[in-house]
Design goal:
Elements (H helix, E strand, L loop, with lengths): L1 E10 L3 H11 L4 E7 L4 E8 L2 E8 L5 H9 L2 E9 L2 H10 L10 E2 L5 E5 L9 E5 L5
Parallel strand pairs: 1-4, 5-8
Antiparallel strand pairs: 1-5, 2-3, 3-4, 6-7, 7-8
The structure holds cobalt (II) ion.
Length: 136
């Protein structure tokens, strides 16, 4: 079941430059910066009442974020929903005929399990499910 909006992902050319806007204009504090190798991005997280802004800067030309920036420019890239069970959430989407980018979750920022639904099936909004990492 979905629990809340976890974060909004925003594609940017430069984390350094965009962080200044969130820090100096909006007055938010950067919670952490992290490179996510699996998605070829560097990220910066801002927390606002439990909903996060995730800034995404590509680390390689073949990064999905590099492609997004080339096609659409900077801006909102995805919305991520927190779920208590990512496998059943993906199964439900699949059963409803939704096209999945990830059939099984991958490891995203913060070690969370994440998976994306294809924007062709989500009315143009790239949609992410994320879930706290499984206890070992
Ligand atoms: Co995300």
């Amino acid at each position: 079941m979905l629990q809340k909006i976890d974060h909004i992902g925003i594609a940017v050319h430069s984390l350094t430059e965009s962080c200044q806007f969130y820090e100096n204009v909006l007055g938010l504090t950067c919670e952490k910066k992290e490179e996510v190798v699996s998605q070829k991005v560097r990220t910066a997280f801002f927390n606002l009442g439990g909903v996060h802004i995730e800034l995404l800067e590509p680390t390689a030309d073949d990064s999905p974020i590099a492609k997004f920036l080339k096609n659409k420019g900077q801006g909102v890239h995805h919305i991520a929903y927190c779920t208590d069970n990512i496998d059943s959430q993906l199964n439900q989407a699949k059963e409803q005929g939704c096209k999945l980018i990830h059939e099984t979750p991958i490891t995203g920022a913060g070690g969370k399990q994440v998976a994306f639904l294809h924007p062709k099936s989500t009315f143009g909004v790239l949609t992410e499910f994320c879930c706290a990492p499984k206890e070992p």
